[in-house]
C-alpha cells in the first residue's frame, strides 16, 4: 500500500494536476456560494470543459469542484441562512444564529477546520480500507437501506423544537410533498393536477431556497430589518474553547458521515441531519442547540465532508454511484474509457491513487483559501440590509433558474418562500419538513424495491435480514427511549416521595447557575484581554 500511496503523490503533485486541482476547488467554492447550483449541477456544467484533458487531470478538477462547492454552500448557509446545497441546511440552525450574534468568523472557521479534519482522516481510511468498505456496502440491499431511512426519520425528535408531535407532523408533511410526481411502483402520476412540470416531483433545491432564503427574508422584513452586525475583529477569531468544544463533535460527525457515505443512496444530506441529531443527544451543550452552538456547525459539516469521501468507495470499488454527484463522475469515468469496479485498483493504479491523494491536496487548498477569509466573509454582515436583501433575492432566483432554465422553478421558490414565512411566523420547525422532503423519495424507493423482492411479503423479508432488524431496533429506541425513560423516572420519583416539578425547578436553577458561570468566565476573559491591552499600551517597548 505504501508504494501505491507514493505513486499517488507522484501523480497528484505534478504541476498540471496541482493547477487544475486549485481551479476546481476555487470554481467549486464559487458555485457553492450561488444558492441552488450545488455540486452535481456544477460538475455537470463544467464536465464538457475537461474532455480535452488527461483523464486523471480531468477527474482531479471535477473532484475539486465537488468538494469546493460544499465549502461554498456552507458559507451562505451561515451568513444569510441560504444553504447552497441540501446538505448545508443543518448549518443554518446554529451557524446562522452564531452569525447573528457576531460570531460568523468562528462559525466559518470551524466549518472549514472540521471539514478538513474529517476529509483527512477519511481519505486515510480510503487508502487502507476502500475494498473492505466496498464489500460491506455490497451487503446492503434495499431492505437494509429502507431500515437506514427509517433510522433517519427517527431522528425527527431532535428537530422538533421541544414538540415531538408537531415535528412529526411537519416531517410527514415533507414526505407528503415528496410524494408528488410519478409513483415508483405503478408509474401513475400523483398530486400533479395535470401539470407536466410536477411529473418529476417537487425539486428539493427550489423548495429549500424558498423555505430558508425567501422565507427568512420575508420574516425579517415583517419584523423590521435587524441592524447590521458590528462585531469586533477578535470576535471573529476562533478561541481555544471553540476548538475544545468542536473536537468531539467533529469526530462524531466524521464517523456518521463516512458510514452513511459508503452506502449507495444515503448521501451527505442524511449524514448531516443524523450528525446534528447525535449532537442534540451527546453534546454537553445539547440543551442550547439551535441557539448558536459551535457543535451544531462542526458535527454536520464534518459529516458532510466524510460522506462525500465515503461516496467514492462504492463508486470506485463497485461501479455504483454513492450519490448524485458521484453518479455524474461515474459517467465521466465511462467517457474517458475507464470502467470502475473491483478491477479498477489493479488495472488503473496511477489514476485511482492519484485521485485519492488529490482529495487531500484539494481539502488542504480549500482550508488555505477559506480559513484566512472567514473574517473577511463575515464582514458581509456589516452591509445594510437594504443592500443585502436584494443580493439574497437575486442570487436565490438566479440559482433556482439555473437548475432547469425553467420559470416554473421561480414560481416554486415563491410558493415555498410564502410557506416558509408562514411557518416561521407560527414558530413551526422547518428542519423536520426538509428531513421529510429528503428522506421521502429515498424511503419510497427502498420500500418499493423491498416489497418487490419479498413478492409483497414486506414483513417476511425484513425479518430475514438481521442487519435491518438491528437498525430498526435502534430507530425504535431513539423514538421511544426518551418517553419511556421519562415515564420510568417519573414513577421512580413518585415512589420515592419526590415531586417531579420540584426536581425540574432545581435542574432549571442549576442550568441558570451554569449559564451565569459561563457569562462570568467570559467577562473575566474579556477583562484579562483588556488588562493585557492596557499593559501593552503602557509598555514603552510596545
From TrEMBL:
Pfam family name, one: TctA
InterPro entries in the record: DUF112_TM
Basic and acidic residues: bias regions: 528-542
UniProt keyword terms in alphabetical order: Membrane, Transmembrane, Transmembrane helix
Region described as Disordered: spans on this chain: 520-542
TM regions (residue ranges): 17-37, 44-66, 108-133, 145-166, 173-193, 254-278, 316-339, 351-373, 385-401, 407-423, 430-448, 460-485
Domain spans labelled DUF112: 18-435
Top-level taxon of origin: Bacteria
Name under which the protein is recorded: DUF112 domain-containing protein
Native organism: Arenivirga flava
Amino acid at each position: 500500500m505504501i508504494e501505491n500511496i507514493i505513486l499517488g503523490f507522484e501523480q497528484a503533485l505534478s504541476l498540471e494536476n496541482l493547477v487544475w486541482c486549485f481551479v476546481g476547488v476555487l470554481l467549486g467554492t464559487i458555485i457553492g456560494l450561488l444558492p441552488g447550483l450545488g455540486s452535481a449541477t456544477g460538475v455537470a456544467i463544467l464536465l464538457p470543459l475537461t474532455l480535452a484533458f488527461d483523464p486523471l487531470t480531468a477527474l482531479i478538477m471535477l473532484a475539486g469542484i465537488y468538494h469546493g462547492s460544499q465549502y461554498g454552500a456552507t458559507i451562505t448557509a451561515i451568513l444569510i441562512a441560504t444553504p447552497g446545497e441540501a446538505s448545508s441546511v443543518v448549518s443554518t440552525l446554529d451557524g446562522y444564529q452564531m452569525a447573528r450574534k457576531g460570531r460568523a468568523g468562528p462559525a466559518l472557521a470551524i466549518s472549514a477546520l472540521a471539514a478538513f479534519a474529517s476529509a483527512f482522516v477519511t481519505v486515510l481510511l480510503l487508502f487502507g480500507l476502500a475494498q473492505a468498505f466496498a464489500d460491506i456496502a455490497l451487503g446492503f440491499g434495499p431492505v437494509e437501506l429502507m431500515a437506514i431511512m427509517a433510522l433517519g426519520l427517527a431522528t425527527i425528535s431532535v428537530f422538533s423544537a421541544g414538540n415531538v408531535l408537531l415535528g412529526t407532523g411537519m416531517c410527514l408533511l415533507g414526505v407528503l410533498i415528496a410524494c408528488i410526481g410519478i409513483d415508483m411502483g405503478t408509474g401513475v402520476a400523483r398530486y400533479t393536477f395535470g401539470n407536466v412540470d410536477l411529473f418529476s416531483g417537487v425539486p428539493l433545491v427550489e423548495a429549500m431556497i424558498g423555505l430558508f432564503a425567501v422565507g427568512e427574508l420575508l420574516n425579517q422584513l415583517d419584523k423590521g430589518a435587524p441592524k447590521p452586525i458590528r462585531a469586533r475583529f477578535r470576535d471573529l477569531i476562533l478561541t481555544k474553547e471553540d476548538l475544545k468544544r468542536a473536537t468531539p463533535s467533529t469526530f462524531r460527525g466524521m464517523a456518521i458521515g463516512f458510514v452513511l457515505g459508503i452506502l449507495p443512496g444515503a448521501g451527505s444530506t442524511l449524514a448531516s441531519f443524523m450528525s446534528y441529531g447525535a449532537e442534540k443527544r451527546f453534546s454537553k451543550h445539547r440543551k442550547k442547540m439551535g441557539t448558536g452552538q459551535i457543535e451544531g456547525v462542526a458535527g454536520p459539516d464534518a459529516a458532510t465532508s466524510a460522506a462525500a469521501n465515503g461516496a467514492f468507495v462504492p463508486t470506485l470499488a463497485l461501479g455504483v454511484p454513492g450519490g448524485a454527484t458521484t453518479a455524474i463522475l461515474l459517467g465521466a469515468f465511462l467517457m474517458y474509457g475507464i470502467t470502475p469496479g473491483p478491477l479498477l485498483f489493479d488495472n488503473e493504479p496511477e489514476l485511482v491513487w492519484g485521485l485519492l491523494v488529490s482529495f487531500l491536496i484539494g481539502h488542504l487548498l480549500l482550508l488555505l483559501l477559506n480559513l484566512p477569509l472567514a473574517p473577511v466573509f463575515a464582514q458581509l454582515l456589516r452591509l445594510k440590509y437594504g443592500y443585502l436583501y436584494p443580493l439574497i433575492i437575486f442570487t436565490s432566483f438566479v440559482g433556482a433558474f439555473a437548475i432547469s432554465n425553467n420559470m416554473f422553478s421561480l414560481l416554486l421558490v415563491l410558493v415555498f418562500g410564502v410557506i416558509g414565512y408562514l411557518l416561521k411566523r407560527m414558530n413551526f420547525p422547518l428542519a423536520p419538513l426538509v428531513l421529510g422532503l429528503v428522506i421521502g423519495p429515498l424511503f419510497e424507493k427502498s420500500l418499493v424495491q423491498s416489497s418487490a423482492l419479498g413478492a409483497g411479503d414486506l414483513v417476511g423479508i425484513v425479518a430475514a435480514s438481521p442487519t435491518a432488524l438491528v437498525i430498526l431496533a435502534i430507530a425504535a429506541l431513539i423514538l421511544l427511549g426518551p418517553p419511556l425513560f421519562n415515564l420510568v423516572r417519573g414513577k421512580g420519583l413518585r415512589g420515592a416521595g419526590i415531586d417531579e416539578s420540584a426536581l425540574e425547578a432545581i435542574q432549571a436553577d442549576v442550568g441558570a447557575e451554569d449559564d451565569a458561570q459561563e457569562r462570568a468566565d467570559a467577562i473575566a476573559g474579556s477583562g484579562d484581554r483588556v488588562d493585557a491591552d492596557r499593559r501593552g499600551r503602557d509598555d514603552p517597548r510596545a
